[in-house]
Amino acid sequence: MQVNYSARQQRLIKKLQQHQSDALIVYGYENIVYLTGFTGHAATLLVRANGQHQLITDYRYFERAGNEAVGVEVVLRNRDEESLPNCIFRLLGKVRQVSFEAHHISHADFLSLNTSSKSQMLIAAPLWVESLRQVKDEYEIHCIQRAAEIADSALAHTLRFLKAGATEREVAIELEYQMQKLGSEGVAFDTILLFGARSSLPHGNPSNTKLNLGDLVLIDFGAVINGYRSDMTRSYVLGESNQQQQSMFEIVQAAQHAALELIKPGVNCSELNTASHQVLSNSPFAQYAGEGLGHGVGLFLHEQPFIKPGVDHQLEVGNIITIEPGIYIPNYGGIRLEEDVLVTESGSKCLTHAPQNFQLAS
């Protein structure tokens, strides 16, 4: 399956034309990968309204860029002789209005860029490429679905290691090893695997804490295929759950289902958040509910659209989002359930399939 980089570039050119911009300076790593296929670093992309795009890099990545980048001229910059801003404006020539990705450069880099500009008007662009990336094409869907399948399989294998005496770090290493053994390109993000009271840390790091009978277990992890990520969370208890643990799990599960049932094109992200939040806010654990419900996922772990209060985005066919409500009680433990969901013409399709079995055999 091949990527149509030309179509992606043309969609961005339309945004340039709509905003009467002659060029966009692209700094974001994932945006450059999305637009050209180049996966190296130390690169800056010039997307031009006239279609003559240029990728600037140095000697370390020049050959690689020539092999990977599609639809662009690869420009070798001598870092000792020419600054990046001078190179950018030398290549752009006498264009009038130049947009740049303000979200991806520092203030110091902007000052240098502004100093090097001559007659050009610099305009801070909104998240143009990110807005394109939130609707996945067939290739992207295939990659994320494959990453989710690998995560499902790796988790099924790793559950046997969740025994009393195992440490968080030991089990996390086994999970990551299994994903890579199955074909994952590393991990989608730092694996979150926590036992007992530490499971109340929404983004805690695995430690040498040992698993005990009756402990809650929280596992948040993902695989990577061709740069595209999956993101799934499962929560367990080792042995039989007590009344509070079981109640927490059932409420989180109900909050997730309330949102999952609504997913289809045209539904506003705020509606999903409200439906899930109502279940959590009407529960005995309302004060411990996590903020926000989910996010888009793709080349970057947390992409548009975000599912949280105040986000006005209607779901579109091709959005892939996470639905991940959670309850986190300090010094007691937490429970989160997370699925990756594709918005389809007829509604939605869940890409993650690991069972939500709460109790683990001790």
From TrEMBL:
Transmembrane segments: none annotated. SUPFAM superfamilies: Creatinase/aminopeptidase (SSF55920), Creatinase/prolidase N-terminal domain (SSF53092). Pfam families: Creatinase_N, Peptidase_M24. InterPro entries: Creatin/AminoP/Spt16_N, Creatinase/aminopeptidase-like, Creatinase_N, Pept_M24, Pept_M24_MAP, Peptidase_M24B. Coiled coil: none annotated. GO terms for molecular function: aminopeptidase activity; metalloexopeptidase activity. Gene3D superfamilies: Creatinase/methionine aminopeptidase superfamily, Creatinase/prolidase N-terminal domain. Residues 8-135 form the Creatinase N-terminal domain. Residues 143-345 form the Peptidase M24 domain. This is Xaa-Pro dipeptidase. It comes from Pseudoalteromonas peptidolytica F12-50-A1. The gene is pepQ.
